[in-house]
Known about the structure:
The chain has 13 helices and ten strands. It has helices at residues 13-25, 38-51, 67-79, 103-110, 115-121, 139-154, 156-159, 194-213, 231-234, 239-256, 263-266, 268-274, 308-329, and strands at 4-8, 30-35, 56-61, 88-91, 100-101, 126-127, 166-171, 218-224, 285-291, 297-303. An eight-stranded mixed β-sheet has the order 3-2-1-4-7-8-9-10, sandwiched between helices. A two-stranded antiparallel sheet has the order 5-6. It is globular, with a radius of gyration of 19 Å. The protein starts with a strand and ends with a helix. The ligand CC(C)CCC[C@@H](C)[C@H]1CC[C@H]2C3=C(CC[C@]12C)[C@@]1(C)CCC(=O)[C@@H](C)[C@@H]1CC3 binds at residues 101, 106, 119, 121-122, 125-126, 173-175, 224, 227, 233, 236-237, 245. This is 3-keto-steroid reductase/17-beta-hydroxysteroid dehydrogenase 7.
Amino acid sequence: MKKVVLVTGANSGIGLALCKRLLSVDDQIHLCLACRNMQRAETARAALLCSHPGADIALLKVDVGSLKSVLEAAKELKQSKRYRRLDYLYLNAGIMPNPRIDFNAFINGLFSRKAIHMFATGEGLLTQEDQVTEDGLQNVFATNVFGHFILLRELEPFLCQSEKESLVIWSSSSNARRSAFSLTDYQHTQGKESYSSSKYATDLLSVALNNHYNKQGLYSSVVCPGLVMTHLTYGILPPFFWTLILPIMLLIRMFTNSFTLSPYNGAEALVWLFKQKPESLDPLAKYYSCTSGLGSNYVKPVKMDLDEEAAEAFYQKLLDLETKYRCWQN
Ligand SMILES: NC(=O)C1=CN([C@@H]2O[C@H](COP(=O)(O)OP(=O)(O)OC[C@H]3O[C@@H](n4cnc5c(N)ncnc54)[C@H](OP(=O)(O)O)[C@@H]3O)[C@@H](O)[C@H]2O)C=CC1
Ligand SMILES: CC(C)CCC[C@@H](C)[C@H]1CC[C@H]2C3=C(CC[C@]12C)[C@@]1(C)CCC(=O)[C@@H](C)[C@@H]1CC3
């Protein structure tokens, strides 16, 4: 039976590299590119068909930052005769709007014992300016977390099937930080680290999803692709600047193995998960794509800094928010 794989944010960066690598592993999959811009989605499909002619690739229009769009996309999938189940759901689309580097924190960090850690995770170095969506949600939370959560809830009948397990895979980050997240302000309306907060939220959510859905055959995992050169990182520093500091980055990679730099390498953990049995995965681990100093790729599981009570409390808050939005829709 063909495996059915849906990838959000599949038209560029890590998402596109993932699709290419999945087709190299198994060119018999049915791949659905879930993107907000159909022109970019078409271009991505054409590029994938170039390297894998004959691949079975469908497109789905979805803006994960808009609840209306997510509900419409889920409806389209449910009505389409092509889908009866989903084996892998890659929740990869993500944003980091208006990033700013805190140069004071950078200089202070550079001469501290946490310098390497700071480079590997970007901890304390970045701030963002968030906005409010048409649904009245914080954009980063809506895109990186809530839209994906609603998509997953809508696709439950495709994911929870007795005959076969399914795996949901979140593109999280080493930038996910407990102190950037608050249960009382889970949309991060107050602070300036909405990206870090949203990625911590995906980590919590993944843990809660495992607790609630494993019995129904649905498993969830989180991944950090490492620092990868994509539109997202070119929004932080322009390409020429990254080229300028590349030797420093490569030097730090010798110590940390955390900068995968290319989208191909960044997709390592995402592809690795495709080859695993979902029930064999550790629900409390984040799977990191790593590249050694010599350039070889490998995957490293790291225990996440969270507790299951907080995961459950956050999950209940998301269910409340979902109920509120569904009432508004009707
Ligand atoms: N690059 C890095 O160093 C790291 C990235 N990550 C995570 O990996 C994921 C992929 O990022 P990356 O490839 O780097 O970034 P890119 O900006 O290259 O890709 C992001 C993808 O998400 C899509 N997207 C953004 N917003 C929406 C939306 N509202 N609805 C639908 N699709 C949307 C983009 O579509 P469009 O082309 O239309 O904008 C694009 O296809 C993100 O979740 C990111 O947080 C994690 C750690 C490190
Ligand atoms: C201006 C200076 C000479 C160099 C500044 C370097 C920083 C901009 C980078 C160092 C570590 C980077 C990093 C990220 C962004 C850019 C840095 C802070 C991320 C936060 C990008 C998105 C992610 O999800 C993380 C995995 C990255 C971690 C490292």
